Amino acid sequence: MLIACGGLPSPQQYQSFRALGLEWVPPVPFLFSLHVKDHPMADLAGIAVPFAEIKIKEWGIRKSGPLLIAHWGFSGPATLKASAFGARWMHEKDYRFPLAIQWIGGRDPDQLREELDGAGRDLRGVALGFHSQWQIPRRLWIRLLERAGQDPEKRWTDWGTKGRNQFLHRLHHDEYEWVGRTANKEEFVTAGGLDLREIHVQTTESRKWPGRKPPSKYIFFSSLRGSRFTANSYI
After folding, report:
1. Phi and psi dihedrals of 187, rounded to 5?
2. Does residue 100 sit in the same domain as residue 39?
3. Which residues lie across from 97 on neighbouring strands?
4. b (16+ CB within 10 A) / e for 105-122
5. What is the pLDDT of residues 148-175, one digit of tens each?
6. How many Å apart are CA 84 and CA 104, to the nearest integer?
7. Where would I find the H helices in the chain?
8. Domain CATH number, residue 43
């Protein structure tokens, strides 16, 4: 027997499966960009960095990749990865929690400091905002300097240790408040599906329907690493 009914983004569409005695984890939105409260970079919409990291301390999420500034917040692969790994938790929090961006992914604070000091030696008489580093677009570089309380017109030779430390902290841990997600009338990707307790994990055979196995793609694994798409068929 094969039941193939397409996507199931609405809880009401699970009634026929419940009639078979199968329990399903309700679907929640999966893969979306993030909205930021009082977005301080809305005027930089369209600017992107090649490799940033999204950090959500409360849930231990750290996901990296290209990051795009949008007029409502942030988008791109880094945010999509973060939303995929925290879909259910984010839904429970009503998409409201603090997050931080590391604008240069893959480097620790000591590496950033060493590279920034090296740039300073090469750009002694140049204004801080004139020449950006790490492939950060110049307009974004200037905005990050300003967010760290630094004057973009100051020369590198006049940039003291305190100012550099403030800027490095901003590069490594730029904080924002997430207050929502992109809204779609009909979610085309959701996290949910057949409850893991409905199957024998070793064989994926149904406990209630011996001899029948649901496709593993449609089983909801509750761990953060294993969230799958909404079920759309049952064999």
Report:
1. -60, 125
2. yes
3. 178
4. bebeeeebeeebeeebee
5. 999 999 999 999 999 999 999 999 999 9
6. 22
7. 15-18, 77-85, 87-92, 109-122, 138-147, 161-172
8. 2.40.30
**Stretch 30-52: mean pLDDT, rounded?**
92
The CA distance from 111 to 155, in Å, is 22
Q: Final residue of a domain: which of 172, 202, 224? A: 172
Lowest mean pLDDT, pick from 13-22, 118-127, 201-210 = 13-22
Print the domain residue range for 220: 3-29+190-234
Q: Are residues 38 and 80 in the same domain?
A: yes
With 70 as the cut, is the pLDDT of residue 224 above it?
no
5 has pLDDT over 80: no
> What band does 205 get if pLDDT is binned at 50, 70 and 90?
confident
Asked if 131 and 123 count as a contact pair (C-beta separation under 8 A), the reply is yes
How many whole angstroms separate alpha carbon 178 and alpha carbon 36? 5
Residue 43 and residue 17 share a domain: no
Determine the distance from the C-alpha atom of residue 55 to the mean position of all C-alpha atoms in its chain, rounded to a whole number: 8
Structure-token match 């149904």, residue found: 206
Give the tokens for residue 28. 């929640």
